[in-house]
Design brief:
This protein is mainly α. It contains 6 helices and no strands. The chain has one domain. Bound molecules: zinc ion (ZN).
Length: 151
């Protein structure tokens, strides 16, 4: 028997949906986004952020802090262009790495976070409605982080 719980993601707790894991789902998102820049590609900034926030060890501790600020900015209606413009100045002075590594350390949350939406659910069902599902995913992540006391 195929036990879907046995395939749960150890980091974010996702179960497979339609055979998607977190990683394979994320790669599918990138394929849709790069092949349809004005459609699916319009939420590229959110999907990358969401995937990494649910797998915080991909970030350094400072990188995770920065990502949380980005999520709050996007959910407050900031456009990726606006955020990029602001980041350009501050990133010039950045002395810390964004990615998690043995030397930089790995991002973690101080409290357990109970995610309500995971990457496999966002991809399941196909590319139709994908943009809406990513936006809902992003909002669910903000809510989960607030509920956990991380924001
Ligand atoms: Zn996961």
């Amino acid at each position: 028997m195929n036990d879907p719980l046995a395939a749960a993601c150890e980091i974010c707790g996702a179960v497979q949906v339609e055979g998607w894991t977190c990683e394979s789902a994320f790669h599918q998102m990138l394929v849709w986004e790069f092949s349809d820049e004005n459609g699916a590609g319009s939420v590229h900034h959110l999907s990358v952020l969401c995937y990494h926030l649910q797998h915080p060890q991909l970030y350094s501790p400072q990188g995770l802090r920065h990502a949380l600020d980005l999520l709050v900015a996007f959910e407050s209606g900031a456009t990726p262009e606006h955020v990029r413009e602001e980041a350009r100045a501050s990133l010039k002075e950045r002395t810390w790495p964004i990615r998690g590594s043995v030397s930089a350390g790995f991002g973690t949350y101080a409290h357990p976070v109970h995610w309500t939406t995971h990457a496999p659910q966002v991809v399941a069902g196909g590319s139709a409605g994908y943009v809406d599902r990513v936006q809902a995913w992003s909002t669910s992540i903000l809510t989960a982080l607030r509920n956990a006391g991380e924001l």
